Amino acid sequence: MTRNEDVNQTQALQAVGLARSTYHYRAKQRDQKYGYDALLCAAIEKICARAGVYGYRKVWATLRARGWSVNKKRVLRYTRHLKLLQPRKVKGHKYTRPALVVPKRSNTYWEEDLSYVWCGDRMNYLFAVIDGYDKEIPGDEFGDRCRSDEASVALERAVLKRFSGPVPVEHVLILRIDRGTQFKARKFRQTAKRLNVQLEYAGIQCPDDKPYIEAFFSKYKVEEVYRNEYRNSVEAKAGWELYRSWYETERVHQSLGYQTPHQVWQSQMVIDKKSIMCNINQAPSCPV
After folding, report:
1. Among 62, 34, 69, CA closest to 48
2. In degrees, to the nearest 5, what angle opens at C-alpha 143 toward C-alphas 185 and 206?
3. Structural domain boundaries in the chain
4. Which CATH number applies to 109-281?
5. What is the per-residue pLDDT for 88?
6. Contact at 8 Å (CB) between 150 and 141?
7. Which of 4, 104, 218, 240 is the most exposed place for a label (fewest CB within 10 A)?
8. CA distance 287 to 17
């Protein structure tokens, strides 16, 4: 392009791919950089000296009430310069979220949690253990207490129902739970150790880490709790027991091929018995 060509500024900037705002931008000379106002600094320091818990928004509101014409961004800049900003919340330890588990057989992956049930005169609590494969509820505890004792009872009932005692040493059973105080308590951890159950904690505020038990509680609330108005704890517990029996023996699940949890569990027991007999006889055509 020669100087003799008549090209305006817009065409020239378009040719080089430069925006007009970028071309006309001039960096502002701020302070030393900003040039802090000594009177405003003194006013902010005086406010923070008397109300040391104020954040910059409350400092801004106080300044406005005292006749200062300032905006929030300027007050933020000044409080940061004076190192008077309130400390941010100290975050706790970052726990690693476990991976989603899709179990291939029963008694390999369980989840446990609790849910609240209003019983007309008080709040009751349901602790439940679900098998991630067959969706059955092998253990539960329904009552008006929400402690590690009740959480331990639910786990003990589940293990006794499925294994008639502690989990065999050679068998690996994982129980995923959240970080509630009931499940982090020493008694619950000792119970799991005594029963030979491996605990796996979900992430903080991550209900998706326990999809099976969360989905079950959702079904229980919609299909039972929200359809009834319990007058007392006795009615609520009776309703829970009836629902659990119907859920396990009659309610079909799409994820189970439109079978009931009890049917899937019984099928798994038959397969396990065949595998045991084959191992004893050392037959080459044993099912895996």
Report:
1. 62
2. 50
3. 34-90, 109-281
4. 3.30.420.10
5. 74
6. yes
7. 4
8. 70
As a whole number of angstroms, the distance between CA 101 and CA 145 comes to 30
Q: 3-class SS at 176?
A: strand
What are 75-114's pLDDT values in tens digits? 999 998 888 888 776 665 556 788 889 999 999 999 999 9
HSE, side-chain direction, 13 A CA sphere, residue 57: 0
Closest CA to 200 of 192, 208, 212: 192
Backbone angles phi, psi at 141, to 5 degrees: -155, 120
**Which residue, 20, 233, 39, is CA-closest to 124?**
233
Which secondary-structure segment (H or E) carries 201?
strand 198-201
- Ranges of H-type helices in the chain: 9-16, 20-24, 38-50, 56-65, 72-81, 148-163, 181-184, 186-194, 211-223, 233-249, 261-281
- Residue 111 has which token pair? 């989840």
